[in-house]
Amino acid sequence: MAQTELTYGGLTMKKDIEEFSTAIEKQLRVPTMPVAIKLVREAEDPPPKAKYPLKDFGHRMAVCQGMTIARTIGWTMAFKKEDHACPLASVFLGHVPPDAFLDGAIAGYYQDQDECGKRMEQSFPRWPVNSIRETWLCPMNRCDFEPDLAVVYGNPAQILFLIQAANFRHGTGVRSSSTGRGGCATWVAGVLQSGECTYMIPGPGERIFAGTQDHEMSFAIPYSKFENIIHGLQYIKNQGGFRYPVPNLAILSEPKMPETYYALDPETSLKPSDK
Question: Peptide bond before 245: cis, by omega within 30 degrees of 0?
Fold first, then answer.
């Protein structure tokens, strides 16, 4: 199905998505696809090929599994309230009342003081109860709906380049906050509520259930920042500030061999000025 031409801020949605996807692929060379995400608040028809965990797989899934499916296999995943296997995402999306969570019902895994546990749980961004109907996740280059944000996975050097690009024409840096768990709260709620980009270290659930690798980090970008990311990546590369892959200038130096090697060719041990 062709991407829908949606007007947003004077530009077509199709053009924005294509330019963003091209910039990420060209400048970062990430191994998995950037993922477009939409939090559906009103009744809408899902993307034509969207797969719902219960309907299409016969069981519930965690939303982080949906993220991995979208970015590695290339399927569009959609989650209703009943599709979520992880209660944390249900709390963050407002699918269930947060009272037990905020009261520290599961904080004891990470905190030995009740009040500290409650503060930790209250620090997570979340949506009001019943404000989000569905969550859609789709490979960016196949997206035919208006995304709220994108999430890009990469290694630390690739995420570093995105941090620099997000700081382009901003100047004060990119903020990140983590308790070491519940990382989906950042992209299902935090990024849209702040309107700012952020970087994330995947938590235990995402590693255990969604197969996120030890070398991976992720970066979340609200739609309003797509254009700035595109310009930032290009400007910084053109200026010579940074690029990916990172050039290894050690390859331009002369290697120092063990002394015994020079018996094979004594001249290689001499400096050019000594010849």
Answer: yes
Per-residue model confidence as pLDDT tens digits over 123-158: 999 999 999 999 999 999 999 899 999 999 999 999
Local structure of 125: helix, strand or coil: coil
Q: Please, what's the b/e burial string for 123-147 (b: 16 or more CB within 10 A of its CB; e: otherwise)? A: ebbbbeeeebbbbbbbbbbbbbbbb
pTM, to two decimals = 0.90
Residue among 42, 76, 30 at smallest CA distance from 221: 30
What's the one-letter identity of residue 246? V
Strands 134-139 and 11-12: unpaired
Rg of the chain over CA atoms, in angstroms?
A: 23
What are 222's strand-pairing partners?
149
State the pairing for strand pair 35-40/134-139: antiparallel
* Residue 216 main-chain phi, psi, to 5 deg: -95, 145
pLDDT at 3 over 50: no
Type and span of the H or E element at 157? helix 156-167
Q: What DSSP element (H or E) covers 217?
A: strand 217-222
DSSP of 218-257: EEEEEGGGHHHHHHHHHHHHHHTS--SSPP-GGGGSPPPP
Kindly list the strands in the beta sheet with 77-79, ordered across the sheet, starting from the edge strand earlier in the chain. Answer: 77-79, 134-139, 35-40, 149-154, 217-222, 198-200
Cα–Cα distance measured from residue 72 to residue 137, given in angstroms and rounded to the nearest whole number: 12
* Matching residue, tokens 């965690």: 62
Angular region, 145: left φ>0, alpha ψ -120 to 50, beta rest: beta
Residue 153 CB neighbour total at 10 angstroms: 24
Judge whether 228 and 165 are in contact, CB under 8 Å: yes
